[in-house]
Write a structure and sequence with these properties.
This protein has helices at residues 3-22, 26-42, 44-60, 65-71, 75-90, 129-140, 154-170, 187-192, 208-217, 240-252, 268-284, 293-298, 306-309, 326-336, 349-358, and strands at residues 98-103, 109-116, 119-124, 144-148, 178-180, 201-205, 230-234, 261-267, 288-291, 302-303, 317-323, 341-345, 363-366, 386-387, 395-396, 403-410. Helix 2 packs antiparallel against helix 5 (75-90). The model has no long low-confidence stretch (mean pLDDT 95). The protein folds into two domains: 3-223 and 397-410, Aldehyde Dehydrogenase, Chain A, domain 1 (3-Layer(aba) Sandwich), CATH 3.40.605.10; 230-372, Aldehyde Dehydrogenase, Chain A, domain 2 (3-Layer(aba) Sandwich). The chain is α/β, with parallel strands linked by helices and 417 residues long.
């Protein structure tokens, strides 16, 4: 395959399709989303069979447990994908929304209209459900998209792409509104991230190495987060039963996700009360604990190194640090956080408000598991990814994050004097 020619063709088709989908009514976009949901439901056995091939190949190729977990589809995950499509269809369409319409002294009336970004390239690893999440959000927000999933999920992604294609055709939309790259050749990624004449934004989802490469090499704007070093801080005014439940859930609910807790911070005033109980629960789940010196005086665990505080494990490993107070916790977070998600567990509202105000991350929480930092849980229907950047979009990126605004001006023949 001539990769450059193939990618140029995808780009041209996406650019043409972007003009059509940008002008498509909300009703037709919603009908397409529901048609895709129906196709996914009707063809779930084909999707699961394709996923089984990917899982078999992944095991034979030595994929670790976290990657296999991300790769795996089952009926519950397909149901969640279908529910995500239905939720996106139910969301208010941002396209065409006009705000801030005001009249100027000159007589002109102006405002801002929300518009699609155009063509969005999305590069992701392992999780085939991203194919549906990305396609649904891009479609509803009036964007065409080119999707490049990981080679380990090629069969799953192609099966899902077939469902998307059938749903688009059923509602009279061009197939090129959503295109899934059919080759696993890495050269396709290099082409995609440099096709500035066809692609308006790149969204990478995957490991830190992938995202760093995309950020360094792209000639197209990138919406990204490099890693998710998420913290939970248990304050000395926390309800310890609540703290136990949140700290246990934030680490063990799923390991291979960016909103899993990687470092637990505990106020020294309650460390001796909560850590033994947590350690016993983590041990039962097979979680390896790595603690600071004060932690190791309270529970048996491995010694945490400087590298541990800055590591996103995506695995059943947890770093624990005992801190003097909330200021110590916030200082640690400021130094080591990837600005993804942090949570404070406390019954002191003043402390909670200060934590939320002063901690500079894309999601800051009070008495909540970090696992809620997710587009689906935030009511976005799905997410295109998590952004830890501060320009354009931050946190879970849903429909609005895939749009921009343009000025619109109405007049009565006014001329500039």
């Amino acid at each position: 395959m001539d990769i450059k020619a193939y990618m140029q063709q995808l780009g041209q088709q996406a650019r043409s399709a972007s003009r059509i989908i940008a002008a498509t009514s909300t009703e037709v976009k919603n009908a397409a989303l529901l048609a895709i949901a129906d196709e996914l439901n009707n063809n779930r056995q084909q999707v699961l069979a394709a996923n089984a091939v990917d899982l078999k190949n992944g095991r034979e190729n030595g994929l670790d447990a976290a990657l296999l977990d991300r790769l795996e589809l089952n009926d519950a995950r397909i149901d969640a994908m279908i529910e995500g499509l239905q939720q996106v269809a139910d969301l208010t369409d941002p396209i065409g929304e006009t705000t801030e319409l005001i009249e100027r002294p000159s007589g002109i009336k102006l405002g801002k209209m929300r518009v699609p970004l155009g063509v969005i390239g999305i590069i992701y690893e392992s999780r085939p459900n991203v194919t549906i999440d990305a396609a649904s959000l891009c479609l509803k927000s009036g964007n065409a998209t080119i999707l490049r999933g990981g080679s380990e999920a090629i069969h799953s992604n192609q099966a899902i792409a077939d469902c998307i294609k059938k749903g688009l055709i059923a509602t009279g939309l061009p197939e090129a509104v959503v295109q899934v790259i059919e080759t696993t050749d890495r050269a396709a990624v290099g082409e995609l991230i440099t096709m500035s004449e066809y692609v308006d934004v790149i969204v990478p989802r995957g490991g830190k190495g992938l995202i760093a490469r995309i950020s360094n090499d792209a000639r197209v704007p990138v919406i990204k987060h490099l890693d998710g070093i998420c913290h939970v801080y248990i304050d000395d005014k926390a309800d310890l039963d609540m703290a136990f439940n949140i700290a246990f859930n934030a680490k063990t609910h799923r390991y291979g996700v960016c909103n899993a807790m990687e470092t637990l911070l505990v106020a020294e005033g309650v460390a001796a009360d909560i850590l033994p109980r947590l350690a016993k629960a983590y041990e039962a789940e097979g979680v390896e604990l790595r603690g600071c010196d004060k932690t190791r005086q309270i529970i048996q665990c491995n010694s945490a190194t400087e590298e541990d505080w800055g590591t996103e494990y995506l695995a059943p490993i947890l770093s624990i640090k005992v801190v003097a107070d909330m200021d110590g916790a916030m200082e640690h977070i400021a130094h080591y956080s990837s600005q993804h998600t942090e949570s404070i567990i406390t019954n002191d509202e003043a402390r909670a408000n200060r934590f939320i105000t002063e901690v500079d991350s894309s999601s800051v929480m009070h008495n909540v598991s970090t696992r809620f930092a997710d587009g689906f849980e935030y009511g976005l229907g799905a997410e295109i990814g998590i952004s830890t950047d501060k320009i354009h979009a931050r946190g879970p990126v849903g429909l609005e994050g895939l749009t921009s605004q343009k000025w619109i001006v109405y007049g009565h023949g006014e001329i500039r004097q």
